[in-house]
Amino acid sequence: MTTEQFASFSDNAVMFAGIVYVLATLGHVVEWAATLARPAAVRSAVETAVPVGAGAPAAASSTASPEDDQRSVRIETAGRIGVALTVVGTLLLAAGVVARSFASDPWRVPWGNMYEFTLTGALGVAAIYLALLPRMRLRWMGLFVTTFLVVVLMLANLTLEQEAGPLVPALHSYWLVIHVGAAILATGAFAVGALTAGVFLLKAGVERRGSTRLHGLLEMFPSSDALDRLSYRLHAVGFPLWTFAALIAGPIWAEYAWGSYWNWDPKEVWAFITWVIYAAYLHARATAGWKGKAAAIIALIGFATLLFNFVGINFFFGASSQHSYA
């Protein structure tokens, strides 16, 4: 295949991945809708039969009617379809990202600009979710993850898309693989952690208000403590990766490329701000015993600074940033 054919294949694979993620989102919407429509008595029976956080309610207990059993089967089927479509979409996205590497002569890593970093970051989010899904029973997160992926891919194609081509001279370095690769993994962990923190705040808010109308929604999620612990673990994984990417690999590459380890470039400054916020989050959790709402808010603020570092710097400081090509 020629580079043009690889580029065309990549664009089509990403497009079809987005379509499949939309279908996966619809599958999870059906799962949620059917769960919320289930009578409260049946929801309670299933909740006692299924471990908290399973997100995949099995057939109702023996006290449920045949109609309730059928509804439980539909819920399980819709959830499984959502997960299966997420797997298919992720494989298509992975194929599109890999093909992007071969759409340039010579071939290169597929994260040479904002568009490619977005695609690879979305792939990282999907891969982390699917890798943790069976062990941590994360199917309850499916709707949030697939919606996030649809929005990210849509914005990438509408605002960031660039034609495949060779790297700019400044990126011809093996540090591109090391520095950006670690940043992508960290971003994926932080994104899934932020989604978990957001769900924790949603559940905590509903519980605090004592809303019975949304009781069925609460049963879709693990306990508040489980959500809090999961968010902490994901951030604990992402933080050392971000530390290496932003404060070790990045400065080493900067010294190699520009003759200085630190240049007070806007992206460098905001990467450090992001690091400080996540460090404060983990430090507070480890030493002061911060849990719950305050910790979740700090985690979301950290993710907001991460997004601004990625997108906002380019739009507001692009002309003055040494990272304008990224």
Please provide a written account of the structure.
The protein contains 10 helices and no strands. It has 326 residues and is an all-alpha fold. It has a domain at 168-326. Helix 6 packs antiparallel against helix 8 (224-258). The chain is flat and about 70 Å long. Mean pLDDT is 83; it is low at 41-62.
Task: Please sum up the structure shown.
The protein has 326 residues and is an all-alpha fold. The protein has helices at residues 3-37, 40-49, 66-101, 114-136, 142-160, 175-209, 215-218, 224-258, 266-288, 293-317. It has a domain at 168-326.
Tell me the layout of helices and strands.
Elements: H1 3-37, H2 40-49, H3 66-101, H4 114-136, H5 142-160, H6 175-209, H7 215-218, H8 224-258, H9 266-288, H10 293-317
Helices and strands, in N-to-C order?
Answer: HHHHHHHHHH
CA radius of gyration is: 22 Å
The count of strands amounts to 0
Structural class label: mainly alpha
Which stretches of 5+ consecutive residues score pLDDT under 50? 41-62
Categorize the overall geometry: flat
Strand content: under 5%
CA distance, first residue to last residue? 28 Å
The major beta sheet can be summarized as: none
Overall pLDDT metric: 83
Instruction: Please work out how many helical segments DSSP would assign.
Output: 10
